[in-house]
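Sample 3 of the quickstart, ligand iron/sulfur cluster:
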Amino acid sequence: MKVVVDGIPLDLPAGTSGIDAVFAAGRDVPYFCAHSYLSPVGACRMCLVESGSPRKGKDGNFELDESGQPKIFWFPKPMAACTMQATDGMHIRTAKTSDVVAKAQAGMMEFTLLNHPLDCPTCDKGGACELQDRAFEYGYGASRFGFDRRHADKHYPLSDFVILDQERCIHCKRCVRYFEEVPGQEVLDFIERGGHTFIDTEEGGLPTGFQGNITDICPVGALLDNVARFRGRNWEYDHTPTTCTLCPVGCSITADARNGRLERVVARENREVNEVWICDAGRFGHVFASEDRLTVPLVRVDGELRPSDWDGAILAIRRGLTGMNPADLALYLNADSTLEEGAALETLAGLTDTPSVDHWPRYAANVETTATLTDVATADAVIVLGADLGEEAPVLELRVLEMLRGGILPPEFPHGTAIADLRLVERPTRHPERLAVIGGESRLSAHAGMRVSANGHNALARLMRPDTDDLRAAAKLLAEVKKPVLILGADVLNTVTREFTAQLADLVTRTGAKVLPISAGPNSKGLAHLNLVPRAGGLGYDRLEEARAAFISRLDPATHGLPGRARGFTIVHDTHLTATARLADVVLPAVTNYEKRGTTVNLEGRLLPLRQAALSAGEGADLIRTLTALAEALGVRTRIRGLKSAQALLADRLGVDLTDLPESGVIRPLGVTFTAPALPHTPQLWKERMHANPERRGSRVPDRADRIATWQLTGQDGALPVGGDD
Ligand code: SF4
Ligand code: SF4
Ligand code: FES
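Result:
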C-alpha cells in the first residue's frame, strides 16, 4: 500500500492507521488518547492531520490532474489520524507542512487546557507529562481565556494505591478502556456529562491485581501511584531498566531510584513477555528494597547479634567452622538468585564436595516447557490445571485474557509498536468457551467457560477421563482446536509423579498441546539447570536442621514453619533481619534483586537481564561476592570471583553471551531433568515486607467513607449550577 506523508512516499501494510503512517515517515503528531495496546477511540482530537485520496471516476479509472497523476481529493476538515485508516494512494499532511493542521492542533490544545488547573509546578507528573510536553511543542503559548477555571476534587483516592486528581483529567478514556479491555473489569467510568464529567469507580475502589497500570498510561498527572508520588521528580530519578523477579513471569520494569532509595517501579515494554503491563505486586511491592535494610554484617557474641565488618564476620565464620570438614557446610539459596550466583554456588559446592546443596522453592521434578507467553495469548484454547495465576504468575493471567479476546498482537513498525491498532475494539467480546480451569477457584475462574474443581495431579487425571459435562467439553475443546496450551500450576506440580508425566506426554501427543508449567520460583528453572539440588547423600533445604553447618542465602525457613538453624553453625545472607537471621551465628548483608547485575530465567525458559539500580545497600553484597568471602573463610580458592568469571563459565555452558542479551531476552531450552524430593509450597506473591507502611511514607489515604462524605463538586450546593463555567 503506497501512502505519502508530507511528500514522503511510504510502502505500508494494509490496515495501517493514519497516525502510524505519520510516525513511519519519521514525522510527528501529538496524541493523548491513542495507546498501543488499547482500542482507538478518537477522544482527544489532538492527532489531527489533513488527508486526501485519489478518486475513481464513473469510468472506473482514477481522475487525473494536469500532470497526468491521480488527482488528490482533500477532506474538507482535518481528521483524527488515530482512528483513520491509511488507504492506498492516500496523502497525509501534518503540522510540519500544513498551517491548517498546525492551527487546528494549537486550537485543540487551547481547548484541552481550557479548564486544566495548570499546576505543573506542583504536579508529580511534571517532567513525564505528555500534556506538558505537547502543550510546549504544539500549543499557542498563551491562552485567550481569562475566566476562572472549573474546580473539582484533588487527591481523590480511587484505592490505597491510586490517587486521582479530577481537575487534571483530560478525559482521554485510556484508564477506562484499559480496565475494560485488558483485565476485563468494568470498574472505572465517566460519571456525569459535559463540563461535569469525571472519572470514578464503583463503591469499593479499584480491584487489586493490575490497577497500577493506569498510572503509567494516564497522559497527565491525574492518576498517580500513591506509593511513589511526591517522592521525587522524574528528572531526579536514576532510571534503571531491569527485570522483576517477584514471580516467574520476569516482566520488564524500570527501577527509579533517588538518593539511594528505590522510590518507584514502572512497566517497560517487552512485547514477548509483559507487553506494557505489570501487576500491582511488581509495581507497588518494592518498598522493602529501601526499608529496614541490613547494611552491616552481624556476629553473635555472648548470645547476641552485634554489628561487625566483613573481616570480623569472616573470622567468626572461620572460628565457627573449626573442626568441621568444608563438605559439612550445606549451601542453600533462594530460587530468585541469578544464574551467575547459582554458578558461583555450584562451583563452591564442587570445591568443598558438599552434597547438601539446594534452592527453594522448586518442584521435585522438571516438566518440560514448550509454550511461550505469546503462544498463550494466541492459542485457540487454554486449559489451566491447578494454578492460581494471581499468586503464581499474574501477567500470565493477562495473556490468557488476551487470548479470550482474540489474541490480536499489535503490529510492529520501525518506529516501534503500532500506536493505534485499528483491529482492537472497545469492550471486546471475550470467548469464555476457549478457557477451562481445572483445580481450585481463582480470579481467572470468573472468565472460564468450564470450571472443574480438582486437586493435585487428580486435575490431569480427570481431564484424561472426563466425568462431568464441563470436563467433557474441555477434553473435546482440546481435541478439536489447533493451538491449545496447557498451563500447569503449583497444585499439580507439587505432586508430579511418574504417572503424571506419562499421562501428560500422552495427552500432548494426542492433542498437540503446548505446555507451560509455572516455575516454583522466579529463577528456579535456571538454578535447576545448574543442578542446584541435593546430590547423593545430601540434605535438601527441608532437612536443614540435620546439617552440621549451613549457609542460607535470602531464605527464611523459620517463618515457613521449618527449623531456622542447622544443627551446628549457621550463616545467613539476607537483605533484612528475618526470623531465620535472628537465629544465626553470623548474618551477612545481601543486596536485593533491584541492585544486582546478572541473568534470570523466566517460566518460558527466557534468559532476561538484571541491571543494578543505584540503591544504597551499605555493605550489602550479592551472592557471588559473599561466596568468594566464604571460600576464603573455608580456605579454598574458587574460580568464580565476580560477575565476569561467572558469565564466562555460563557462556560455555549455555552457548549464550549473557553480557549482551537482547532487551526482550532470549529463549534457551534448559533441558535438564532432575528428581529430588522437594517441599510442597503454596505460592504467595505479596510478602509481608512488600506492604508499604503508609504512616512512615506519609502516603496515608483517608478512609473511603470519610472521603465520600467530604467530596462535592465546587458550586454544587444543592442544585447544580446552570450552564456556563462553574
Ligand atoms: S484519568 Fe487520566 S487516563 Fe483516565 S481519562 Fe483522565 S486523563 Fe485519561
Ligand atoms: S507478574 Fe510477576 S514478574 Fe511481572 S510485575 Fe508481577 S510479580 Fe513482577
Ligand atoms: S483523537 Fe486522541 S490520539 Fe487521536
